[in-house]
Amino acid sequence: MLIFVCGGVRSGKSSFGEQMAEQLQTDSGRLIYLATAVTTDEEMQQRVKKHQQDRCAKQKQWETLEWSMQLEEAAKHLTTDDVVFLDCVTTWLSNEMFQESGEMPSEKALKSKMICAVHALEAAAKHVVIVSNDIFHEPVSFHPQLFRYVKVLGELHQYIVLKADTAVRMECGNHVVMKGGILN
Amino acid sequence: MYFITGGACNGKKQWVVTNFNEKIQNSCRWYCGYQEDWTDILELQHTEADTVVIEGIEHCLKAYASEGSGRSGALFYETFVQPLRHWEKACAGRTLIIIGTDVTKGVVPMEQETRRFRDETGRLFQYLSQHANDMYMIWFGIAKKLL
């Protein structure tokens, strides 16, 4: 099953997505946190630490896989009973799009690569919960790279929602089910 | 009048193409605000097509508002949308579809002109919502009917 959770900053999307993942876990499978963030500064380190502490405080046991790009490779470390929580598409796309080498993949190549990775994760695990940010409600930048980023992210979201069994929009800590259903 | 809104790159255009396919195929003037001159909106009321689609109305408003401080969303509605409402009502079978990207929810922009554009877009969208027969919000390809 593929689940998509999207909302603004501090809308509770990670917390809600984690809850969903925990509910979907079975005795035979693991709970995998697939972290895409790269810690480039102290603020980011603090954010990562906060997420890690939150997960440690939970009753359920989480395993973390850190994979900033080429998530299809991460799929090789999964079993078909695992529940994967991917946090998040926004950082993953930044990592794929703005590479240190300066290499600039085409929009088509990027989308196709990331879509293949989503399919690989879906095929490798029992359930995949994907979290992403809603960054689409402000004047669109004319900066070419930023415009490209927004466009590719929007198109990826459209594709994931199309393929998802469940799609949820987060608003101020509340979830709005836009597609499919959720467990109680 | 149909008013279709939602965030940028959320599939609004594709939703209109899919859901109004027959009208668009038959007789349609598709005006793209991102590519065409905003003043051409005034010409749309003289079209011989049965369906008029305005894509990117917020972009037209931006160009319009940048040319004078008194140019508001209200005035834009009166000057450019109202004539098209009359055009639509004048003859059975005519349809007006307006697509606008919601740009009103981000951080307050640093530039005054962008702040004003955002404010006036919010106001214009309220007018469009008040006068639309149907209004849909598109979220990554999924439509939610608001009116």
TrEMBL record, chain A:
**What GO biological process terms are annotated to this protein in UniProt?**
cobalamin biosynthetic process
List its EC numbers.
2.7.1.156, 2.7.7.62
Catalysed conversion reaction: adenosylcob(III)inamide phosphate + GTP + H(+) = adenosylcob(III)inamide-GDP + diphosphate; adenosylcob(III)inamide + ATP = adenosylcob(III)inamide phosphate + ADP + H(+); adenosylcob(III)inamide + GTP = adenosylcob(III)inamide phosphate + GDP + H(+)
Under which main EC class is this enzyme filed?
A: transferase
Q: Which domain of life is it from?
A: Bacteria
Report the family membership: Belongs to the CobU/CobP family.
Can you name this protein? Adenosylcobinamide kinase
Automatic annotation (TrEMBL), chain B:
Gene3D superfamilies, sorted: P-loop containing nucleotide triphosphate hydrolases (3.40.50.300)
Q: Which GO terms describe its biological process?
A: cobalamin biosynthetic process
Question: Which of UniProt's keywords are assigned here?
Answer: Kinase, Nucleotidyltransferase, Transferase
Q: What is this protein called?
A: Adenosylcobinamide kinase /adenosylcobinamide-phosphate guanylyltransferase
GO MF, one annotated term? nucleotidyltransferase activity
- Say if the entry is tagged with keyword Transferase: yes
